[in-house]
Amino acid sequence: MTPIGTTFAQSPAEGEALAHDMRVRWALEEVGQPYEVFLHAFRAMQESTQLEPDSPEQISADEECELSLFESGATVIDIAAHHPGLLPGDANARAHAIRWLFAALNTVEPPIIELETASLMERDKPWYLQHLPFLEGRIRTRLGALSRQLGEADWLDGDFSAADLMMVMVLSRLDGSGILARYPNLAAYVARGRARPAYRRAFDAQLAVSTALKS
Predict the structure, then answer these.
(1) Structure pTM?
(2) Are 5 and 52 in contact, with CB atoms under 8 Å apart?
(3) Domain 91-194 = CATH 1.20.1050.10
(4) 174 with 113: CB under 8 angstroms?
(5) How far is CA 112 from the centre of its chain?
(6) How far apart are CA 70 and CA 52, in angstroms?
(7) What is the pLDDT along the chain (215 residues), one digit of tens a residue?
(8) 90 CB contacts (<8 Å, ≥6 apart)?
(9) Where in the chain is the domain with CATH 3.40.30.10?
């Protein structure tokens, strides 16, 4: 069956490739799995009583049953589990890739989101400028460790995997902040990920939805 990705009809990211459905689109494009997209109204999501805070959800291509998932990390892992190409076949290498995927979501992304939130909600507060160095320092601590781990390699642990897909998407949230530029190998890593044909297809597909809704 064809997976169905759910995304907001009016995403605040508006074609900037930062909405979480982009992570799922990219994964599906990497494995060559055709998919459909259902546009979900943001207001309807707010009024829903279901615990599904992280659109999109993905209907798995499992022919035995239909599986509804939310959370982009879980959805990407499910896609990788059903299709070759996003996780290594070797059990140890596979565990390492999954470890890095969770590191992207649980270690690298939280301080980036904290900075984004402060920039949106506290910029006019008297404490904002005093708080900013602390927020940026937490991000630099994470990026410094990641930069050392990546070194001169193209990808985090061998060939490109779901871990790189998620890490590139998380680091992309730093666009415009100037922080990533301090780590040339990480900036090149993100550029490498965005240059992949599957990323470009996913980006164009997401942008097409945003553009159509504006017209």
Answers:
(1) 0.83
(2) no
(3) yes
(4) no
(5) 13
(6) 6
(7) 566 555 655 555 554 567 788 898 999 999 998 887 777 655 555 455 454 444 444 433 333 345 566 688 988 998 999 899 999 999 999 999 999 999 999 999 999 999 988 888 887 888 888 888 889 999 999 999 999 999 999 999 999 999 999 999 999 999 989 999 999 999 999 999 999 999 999 999 888 876 766 65
(8) none
(9) 4-87+197-214
What the block records as the tokens of 102 is: 């969770």
Please provide residue 52's backbone torsions phi and psi, each rounded to the nearest 5 degrees. -135, 70
Identify the CATH class of 4-87+197-214.
alpha beta
Tokens (6 digits) for 76: 């990407």
User: What's the pLDDT score for residue 103?
Assistant: 97
Q: E strands along 13-75, which residues?
A: 36-40, 58-59, 68-69
Beta bridge pairs of residue 36 = 4
Amino acid sitting at position 96: H
Tokens of 151: 């070194």
Q: How far is CA 191 from the centre of its chain?
A: 15
| Range(s) within the chain of domains with CATH label 1.20.1050.10 | 91-194
24 and 58 in contact (C-beta within 8 Å)?
yes
CA distance 181 to 168: 14
For residue 62, the 8-state DSSP code is: -
